[in-house]
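Many introductory courses stop at the sequence. We go one step further.
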Amino acid sequence: MSDESKPEASKPARAEEKPDILNGHTIPFIVFIALTSFFPSSTRVIYPLKTVLGAALLWYYRKDFTELKEWRFHWSAVPVGLAVLAMWIGSEYVFPSQGNGFNPFTGDSPFTSPATDWLMASVRLGGSALVVPVLEELFWRSWLLRYLVNNDDFRTVPVGQFTWFSFLVSNVLFGLEHDRVIAGILAGIAYCALVYRFKEIRSAIVAHATTNFGLGVYVISTGAWQFW
């Protein structure tokens, strides 16, 4: 058999590159939290800006989120989200907030009107219920929980793999992200419980969205702006 007729030797498969710490799971959250940290909540344009940027980055990196390819979640996500909501509101009576929060109906811009005020309230409600739960759960419960198990390549760690180190560190940091630290830690534990129980983050996203949407409705209907 001549050399030309011999089958070509198969080349070894190229190893998939390991993800950098700046990736689709982290960048949307980092951008969102940076805008939150550097600008006061009273700056009316910031929340729409960070909501749009967060949503755009989630869409840009959508192919990275293999854990969201199937959209199924457990029904218990809704009562868990409502329980976190009740705990969050109740924490105000134990640890009162020192801030005024964001009131979309007190803008001092010459362009402020009832229509724009309600638009701001709607953007705030929609962003907190539709964008924030996705980017936060992808960061905290999909990336960080796994990164703390294997920081060489978090993708090798199954979603929902438990270690005490990742559980404690992620929930303490999640609490510190919020003004209500204790409530934040307890909320993180509740969302983590769904991830550990069902080995997916979709239920945690739905629970988180339930909490945030319910809180937004409560804030708008009662004027408890300190929660925003």
